[in-house]
């Protein structure tokens, strides 16, 4: 699947039209995760559809969803901007950035410097970089470029071997361990438990995908996760903010919108 997505991305990059600069202030994803609202950081994702699940939320209003995430104490928001596979759009990110005050991460398949520049222009505070999509040295160059432009990065891995290889080139401040196998689409939290011991002490790591219950959160927290990235279970909730309070076993009395 990843190979197919990357093929599409390369075609998109060939015809990429660069947007105008959005004049917006930068917010720190690293600080937000280091000082979370709860005992573990939460990156809440705005995602209409996905290759593994198809359409997830038909009643999809990205800015409203993002606002309810912020009201429910999310530390940061991840916005899918890929159109073809996730029904996202870069305009969603810009609109969300303007209507919220927490860090906004661009979730896409960023493999080229032009996309880093595009991310800056649309107002992203941070971008996702995925190990294995480009050689590690190239990933490091994209990481450096993002930082030079004032953005931060969540660097995602799917296997211990990917993390070891990456660490021989650079040490990202924020590492994402994705629990989803991109070949079978199965999620397993044991991914987080297996890879966690390889994360250097100075790094924070986020457990991504397949987190649906408070037990799931507790499990990855025990493995050392400083944060979780959750999409589907919030997007399937009647209102996404209730998805957040339910995930953390909190009362929904004050969060009804
Ligand atoms: O979600 C997919 O089907 C998918 C397929 C191929 C590449 C990436 C994919 N997902 C991106 C993500 O990592 C998730 O959107 C994110 O971690 C949230 O996961 P979830 O809470 O399980 O929606």
TrEMBL record:
Reactions catalysed, semicolon-separated, are: 1-(2-carboxyphenylamino)-1-deoxy-D-ribulose 5-phosphate + H(+) = (1S,2R)-1-C-(indol-3-yl)glycerol 3-phosphate + CO2 + H2O
Keyword terms, alphabetized: Amino-acid biosynthesis, Aromatic amino acid biosynthesis, Decarboxylase, Lyase, Tryptophan biosynthesis
Q: Which residues form the Indole-3-glycerol phosphate synthase domain?
A: 7-240
User: EC number(s) per UniProt?
Assistant: 4.1.1.48
Task: Give a GO molecular function annotation for the protein.
Answer: indole-3-glycerol-phosphate synthase activity
Q: In which pathway does it act?
A: Amino-acid biosynthesis; L-tryptophan biosynthesis; L-tryptophan from chorismate: step 4/5
The similarity annotation says: Belongs to the TrpC family.
PANTHER family given in the database record: INDOLE-3-GLYCEROL-PHOSPHATE SYNTHASE (PTHR22854:SF2), TRYPTOPHAN BIOSYNTHESIS PROTEIN (PTHR22854)
Under what name is this protein listed? Indole-3-glycerol phosphate synthase
């Amino acid at each position: 699947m990843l190979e197919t997505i990357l093929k599409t991305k390369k075609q998109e990059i060939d015809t990429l039209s660069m947007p105008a600069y959005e004049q917006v202030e930068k917010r720190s994803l690293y600080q937000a995760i280091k000082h979370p609202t709860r005992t573990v950081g939460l990156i809440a994702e705005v995602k209409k559809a996905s290759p593994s699940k198809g359409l997830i939320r038909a009643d999809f209003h990205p800015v409203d969803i993002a606002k309810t995430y912020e009201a429910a104490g999310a530390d940061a928001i991840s916005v899918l901007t890929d159109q073809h596979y996730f029904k996202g759009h870069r305009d969603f990110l810009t609109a969300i950035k303007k209507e919220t005050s927490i860090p906004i991460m661009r979730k896409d398949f960023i493999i080229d410097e032009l996309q880093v520049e595009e991310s800056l222009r649309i107002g992203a505070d941070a971008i996702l970089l995925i190990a294995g999509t480009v050689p590690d040295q190239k990933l490091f160059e994209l990481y450096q470029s993002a930082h030079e432009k004032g953005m931060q990065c969540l660097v995602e891995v799917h296997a211990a071997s990917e993390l070891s290889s990456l660490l021989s080139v650079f040490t990202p401040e924020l590492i994402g361990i994705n629990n989803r196998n991109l070949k079978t689409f199965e999620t397993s939290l044991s991914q987080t438990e297996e890879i966690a011991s390889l994360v250097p002490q100075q790094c924070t790591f986020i457990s991504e995908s397949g987190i649906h219950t408070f037990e799931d959160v507790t499990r990855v927290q025990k493995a050392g996760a400083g944060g979780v990235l959750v999409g589907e279970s919030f997007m399937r909730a009647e209102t996404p903010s209730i998805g957040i309070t339910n995930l953390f076993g909190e009362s929904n009395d004050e969060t009804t919108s």
